[in-house]
């Protein structure tokens, strides 16, 4: 098994790698997936967006996910003190899915990978990519360490790097670039949600906004556990003393809404702290490779866009690779970078405007404007390529300008 030849080598079996592998396998391409961990394995990223249902559906992975019974997510709730801003995905500007799931990722990713293995996709778990060499024509030779520490080599016509925070090709090829998103960090765990209220309140995904930079996510799962996590500036995350469990317990006291429900509950694993999570790269593709998912770009968890971008970019990359393998011409700059960055830039604006406070002004302004809410809701559902939505097409101006007008109006009212 020293040397293997395939059409496409996929690095990583997360949602991005699995969607890419499924598409290529369905299109009769010879694929090998190499995954560093043993599945099931924990990873963060538990709140999905409706848009990603299109991707799982298109590659034939939706039914197997439906069978599991993950918690249904029909919208998202944002709280600021007494003000509640509820988004309902059935009331959105763009046509498309009006529900998705809140998922335990260990189970979710394991279902995807197991299904692919059952369909005959070659996935090697506990195999780690450690090096790569590209030839001038874009073909490559990748060095992989197996579970016994033995090296072997995969020759591929294309590589799809879906290695998430492993960021394999960005590291090996020096493609990392500082993110334009302000630096934030996070601390999170799961709890056995023994004080979960009955009804919708118990299962609602909620973002409790403590201040402009600091918020708590609450993501209830169908197994009775709930994911809780704080996001804030490093100064906030570092200001608490003790180990990660003590720090998270102290942080919970800052959430008036959730402290009683979660205070003192046993954490299912020691809270994980990820610092400066936003990532970016100099380029999304090169001759013989494409970066997808977190390996390419990660903005911020506030709008739960990570998995959806991971599957959107994986599906697009897999389609373009298939075209090339079928000897069709591909304009990677336009068809891949142009397409992906259009969506990334919309979300990047929303993330930036969240932390300037402008978007929070729109969310928590009363009375609500139902038409504007529908348009923003379509963005939050992941439909960020729909130019009929003014909040997509003019994303760079609309949020800022509207927030300005609201603030002017409020100042005027205060002066009357
Ligand atoms: P992953 O799911 O990370 O999979 C990559 C795989 O590659 C891993 O299994 C890894 O073991 C493997 N790998 C790594 N290195 C190697 C190697 N050298 N060789 C072989 N295999 C390798 N997203 C959401 O959609 N919703 C959320 O609510 C959300 N919350 C988040 C909260 C925080 C604090 C953070 C930091 C992120 C959050 N995200 C969220 C983002 C989400 O985690 C990612 O966008 C998503 O997991 C990306 O999927 P992926 O398939 O690209 O990578």
UniProtKB/TrEMBL annotation:
Pfam families: FAD_binding_3. Signal peptide: none annotated. Residues 6-176 form the FAD-binding domain. The keyword Oxidoreductase applies. Keywords: Oxidoreductase. One of its GO terms (molecular function) is oxidoreductase activity. Its EC number is 1.-.-.-. SUPFAM superfamilies: FAD/NAD(P)-binding domain (SSF51905). InterPro entries: FAD-bd, FAD/NAD-bd_sf, Flavin-dep_Halogenase_NPB. This is NAD(P)/FAD-dependent oxidoreductase. The lineage of its organism: Bacteria, Pseudomonadati, Bacteroidota, Flavobacteriia, Flavobacteriales.
